[in-house]
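Table 4 source record.
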Amino acid sequence: MLYKLLYSLHDVYSPLNVFRYITFRTALAIITAMLVSLVIGPALIAFLRRISMTQQIRDDGPQTHLKKSGTPTMGGLIIMISILAAVLLWGDLENMYVWIMVFSLLAFGAVGFLDDYLKVIRKNPKGLRSWYKFGAQICVAAIIGAILYFNPKDPYNDILSIPFFKKWLIDLGWFYIPFSVLVIVGSSNAVNLTDGIDGLAIGLVGIALFANMILVYISGNAKFASYLQVLFLQGTGELTVICGAMLGGALGFLWYNAYPADIFMGDVGSLGLGGALGTLAVITKHEIVLAVVGGIFVIETLSVVFQVASFKFTGKRIFRMAPIHHHFELKGWHESKVIIRFWIVGIMLALLSLATLKLR
């Protein structure tokens, strides 16, 4: 909460008045989180390698991945630390939405941490049992959904907004809570499934965060929201700073996770970031837009669902391997080509999500 201290001195030194602007603090959050990631990265990578917190590669996947065995994992800790540092310095800690986002990030990250710990340290290849894992995620998401549903300050606490339309608002009533659970848990696991090759998931998360940063700022600004005819949500503009912190943490981690990766994100990072993205969408009523901007995450998830269903009912596989990024690898695409092409599609989808602001 350094910004509060600095802003309190603006009467003495007028340039400090700049700290009242969300855009300025968002820029500081991006820079801070990125610098923290870059600074602590080497030490944490060395520490994780020293305690043998390294990834064991499955031998039934692309053979090019076997050489990655022994690469440190749980790199999501770098992201978590950098995000928290930036939020504590530049975020408004009196804003309830900030704490909901922090809770989501840490709670889903904790589930991922336990899963990683059991897989790597306890040598349990299955990690946390599926029912425990999903059960914990559902509980966390239900708590978030209930807090938002019973928030007396939110006039749209049970509303689903349909993009591309000005006044199409659907009142979900009590079903808002299970709907929130579906969005948040689905987002968390979608990012987790996408985290299969170096830099793919974190790059797509960064793209989604950049688009969301713009969307959140507009919906939290009364003038812009009125001009573009989107829902104005009092207090959510502060989440722009959170998006900036997450974006900076993602970019800093990408420095070490880019192909060939020095460290893997692990479930602690993918579940935490995915859960936070879902929570952000629920708070700002951009649940459907999340499916657009995170279209690659949706495709990755559906590829697994269709693959499992097809094999179960017909005994045949649709893809050479799921999630779908492995399918393209087994078709002969180099890993870096898969990453770049998926990023390109992700950027196009992000631009499409921003187009929903004007096409109303």
